Amino acid sequence: MSIEKKAFGILADGRKVSAYTLRNEAGAKVKIIDFGGALVQIKVPDREGNNADVICGYDQLDSYINGDGYQGALIGRFGNRIGGSKFTLDGKTYKVSVNDNGVNSLHGGICGFNAKIWNAEMVDGDEPRLILTLTSPDGEEGYPGKLDVKVTYTLTANNSVVIDYYAVCDKPTILNLTNHAYFNLGGYNSGKIFDHKLWLDADSYLPTDEKLIPTGEIRSVTGTPFDFTTEKTIGQDFDLTNTDLGLAGGFDHCFNFKGGETEEPVLRGILTDEKSGRQMKMYTNQPCVQFYSGNFLNNEKYPFKNNYPQGLQNALCLETQKMPDAINHDNFTDCVLRPGQEYKYTTIYEFGVI
Ligand code: GLA
Predict the structure, then answer these.
(1) Which atom of ligand 1 lies nearest, measured to the CA of 252?
(2) Domain span at residue 130?
(3) Distances (CA, A) of 71 to 37, 270, 279, 295
(4) Angle of CA points 162, 336, 226, to nearest 5°
(5) Which among 38, 45, 2, 48 is positioned nearest to 18, based on CA atoms?
(6) Region 17-40: what's the mean pLDDT?
(7) Which of 55, 129, 138, 347 is placed for a possible disulfide with 284 were both Cys, Cβ 3.0 to 4.6 Å?
(8) Cβ contact 87:105 at 8 Å
(9) What integer pLDDT is reported at residue 149 of this predicted model?
(10) Would you give the end-to-end CA distance of the chain in angstroms?
């Protein structure tokens, strides 16, 4: 119904950062900044019709620049980790930036897409859209090929936030784009997410080592705390004496959807907060989701909006993706993009009430 642009802050080098607010007839509101293409606010009603902001994040630009956690950001070139920060593609070995645990590469490297200013184009209408584009030069953060990326955020009439990802390259490369929004359906300032119920259409997950690099095993969820095929609360099996949960301090794992990648987005996850009545349905055509239960949310220097303190498991991410470190495991999903191919996928976060 409307889209509006406002100043959000200025980078040290003088570049201006803007915030874009999308509104629909139903009264929902979505805010995105062009720094990192970050989703900084989603205001949707509870069962009484009261809006709350269900996205964790900050009030000011400085925290988006210096605070950790990739709050709300678009992630690229490669979502999650690349073990040893290297990979071999078509016989050639590439080294990518090390920015995690002194050895691995996380979320695109030192200056990933989360730290870029994206070009923004506003499209007004019943379902307002923000089209974000950027070009990543050949060799950026060590990745081969020039990459042209387009991400479109749409707020639909039925309170869905649709994220369309698109990219093309000029040399063979690897790619894994996602969004790193932190959700708390009670509102960003309502504490732990242990009472949220989650259903995931995932029959296996990827165990990791202590630095969160997948071991290579694709393990069935059956009989483990990772079984969300029947809806349960996040707290129910949050048991850090379980080896995999203990290594990560909670859920921080790639869950693999039944049957893998699909042509069209299909329903793969449902998150429900019975207290507020808010529910979020997640549709995607990607093969996996990284379910991260906010196990590093403890940086006291960067409180959330309105000075609400960070806190472990105060929010969670559902990052649709291909498998982390896929290029280093022959049994993992394909993550190679070649010239002439189009990288294209859609994730929908649909908000409703129960
Ligand atoms: C991802 C990772 C986590 C963590 C966060 C950022 O979701 O899987 O381990 O690095 O990003 O804090």
Answers:
(1) 8
(2) 3-353
(3) 10, 21, 21, 13
(4) 60
(5) 38
(6) 98
(7) 347
(8) no
(9) 99
(10) 25
Residues with catalytic annotation?
180, 319
Which residue's alpha carbon is nearest to atom 1 within ligand 1? 80
Cβ 296 under 6 angstroms from ligand 1: yes
Return the amino acid letter for 255.
Answer: F
Three-state SS for 145?
coil
pTM over 0.85: yes
CATH number at 47 reads 2.70.98.10
Ligand 1 pocket check for 251: Cβ under 6 Å: no
Give dist(CA 319, CA 289) in Å, integer: 5
Count: domains in the chain: 1
CB contact at 8 A, 289 and 320: yes
Burial class from Cβ neighbours inside 10 Å (0-12, 13-18, 19+) for residue 48 reads exposed
Classify strands 119-123 and 105-106 as parallel, antiparallel or unpaired.
unpaired
- Give dist(CA 257, CA 111) in Å, integer: 30
Ligand 1 atom nearest the C-alpha of 69 is: 12
273 within ligand 1 shell (Cβ under 6 A): no
State if residue 212 touches ligand 1 by the CB under 6 angstroms criterion: yes
Q: Which atom of ligand 1 is nearest to the CA of 297?
A: 12
Q: Which residues touch 311 (CB under 8 Å, ≥6 apart)?
A: 191, 192, 297, 298
Task: Give the confidence band of 45 by pLDDT, cuts at 50, 70, 90.
Answer: very high
Q: How many whole angstroms from 69 Cα to the centroid of ligand 1?
A: 7
Q: What's the average model confidence in pLDDT over 163-189?
A: 98
Instruction: Fill in the amino acid letter for 147.
Output: L
Q: Which residue has the tokens 């062009």?
A: 34
What tokens appear for 121 in the block?
């184009």
Residue 278, preceding peptide bond in cis (omega within 30° of 0): no
**pLDDT tens, 67-116?**
989 999 999 999 999 999 999 999 999 999 999 999 999 999 999 999 99
